[in-house]
Amino acid sequence: MAGAKGKVVKIAAAGAIKYGPKAVGVVKKAAKNPQVRALAGKVAKEVAENPRLRKQAIQGAGKVARGAAVAAKGAGVIAVGKAGIAAARAKDKGAKVGDAAKQRMADAKEKRQEKKAEAAKAEQAMAVIGAAIKMTAAEFDEVYASLGPSVNPLETPGCYVVFLLSKPFKPGKGGFRYDEVYVGASDNMAEAVRRHFEGKGNVDLYADHRHKRDLQYLAFLPGCSDKRGDLMGLLGSDDSYNAYDW
């Protein structure tokens, strides 16, 4: 009898873990039945008087309690983990949005700086050629071919500047922008430029002369051969054709 009752207690304890929530309503309903109450009292009395049954009942209740505690702890860990993942994703997304905004601002700033630099170059170039003899590459060919050495104002010592413009020069349109520039000095400015255009000088300048001739613009400054270094610094030719000055 005791062995059978022990099995009943164990089964009841295991069932409580699995079916406990559903059983609550059934127990409340059954408790209203006088016969059930009497039987429950008898079982409780028998369990209380039998040390073995009492021990088994306590162990069963402990298992139920421990199972509930583990389940609650597991649910808490899952909840915390999900919250942590959500927070990490939100932080990562926010960081990416912030980085993108910073990059856009940096790009915009860089473009503004480039425009300012281009404007400064154009102003410098205009200041140089303001008092210079200036012409396009085509005009240079005409002047050099048609005038003899004795009357050609370019057959004299001085500095010369060769610009590669960003777009063809249009007289009367104000300043101009250039992509490349070469500053040279010679006892015969015209002869020096002609040698560049024939491939006997700066090779990069010569290559652009062949392929982008309509973008070349020349400025000649007689009598200032000693100012070549100043002109190179002013126009930034060290970072252009003069970086490879052959």
Give the N-terminus to C-terminus distance in angstroms: 115 Å
Strand content: 5-15%
Number of strands: 4
Order of helices and strands: HHHEHEEHHEH
Q: Strands across the major sheet, in which order?
A: 1-4-2-3
Main pleated-sheet profile = 4 strands, antiparallel
Number of helices: 7
How much helicity do the residues have?
Answer: 55-70%
Low-confidence stretches: none
**Which class of secondary structure composition applies to the elements?**
alpha+beta
Shape: rod-shaped
**Rg computed from alpha carbons, rounded to a whole number of angstroms:** 48 Å
Roughly what is the average pLDDT, rounded to an integer?
Answer: 75
Quick synopsis:
With 246 residues, the chain is of the alpha+beta class. The protein contains seven helices and four strands, in the order αααβαββααβα.
Structure description:
The chain is of the alpha+beta class. Helix content is 65%, strand content 11%. It has seven helices and four strands, in the order αααβαββααβα. It has helices at residues 2-30, 34-49, 51-129, 137-146, 189-197, 203-211, 228-235; strands at 133-136, 158-165, 178-186, 216-222. A four-stranded antiparallel β-sheet has the order 1-4-2-3, sandwiched between helices. Helix 1 packs across helix 3 (51-129) and helix 2 (34-49) packs across helix 3 (51-129). The protein is rod-shaped. The N and C termini lie far apart (115 Å). The mean pLDDT is 75.
